[in-house]
Design brief:
single chain, alpha+beta, Immunoglobulin-like, 3-stranded antiparallel sheet, 8 strands, about 10% helix, about 25% strand
Length: about 220
Amino acid sequence: MASTGALHGRRGGLALAMSAIALLSACTPATPPVQVTAATAAMPATPATPWTDAAPRPATVYPDLPVAPVATGGLQVPQPPRPTRVNRVPMPMAAVGTAPSYTPPTASCGGYSSPRRIVPGTVPGAGSATVTWMADSSPAVQGYRVSAVSQVLVTGVQPAPLQQTVAQPGGCVPITLTMTGLTDGTPYVFWMEEQVLDSRTGAVRFVQVGTSEAVVIGG
């Protein structure tokens, strides 16, 4: 019986506490919920840029920057030459309005190149030809060799050309050589070679220096 009374006492205390809580809730005024809204500020409208055909602004020209002086001493790097403006044209030693005259120097034995270019003259005869040319004044020339080369081709190996040699005369004098044993009615070209002494080795070699026009042999 004692436990039953205690149970009823606890239930009564719990009911009393619930009644107090309900009374407090009824006395407290209800507060409406607060609604938070974001304030939006009106942004100014960006004006549209109209398309124009205006010419572009000229580029800004800046002055040249000062160049630092080159330090002296130590390794100096040579600079390449810079082109300069030609203000005057060199004039020959002649009066203004008068065309200058030029006189080439006299060539040794009538030639300027080294080795010389010799074009021999040829006169055909009966079974022969007379070849003439001007001697070369070079001290290295010991003599000449003339070859008569036939212009008629044959089957197989071509026959060896007829050759004759001439010693070097003294001074700039004309040389005449008559070659015989040629075939009448056959065209020939005459090759000119100089017999040259090599000053370093002492060897003698032949250097071709010219050819003639083709001539037909016959008297």
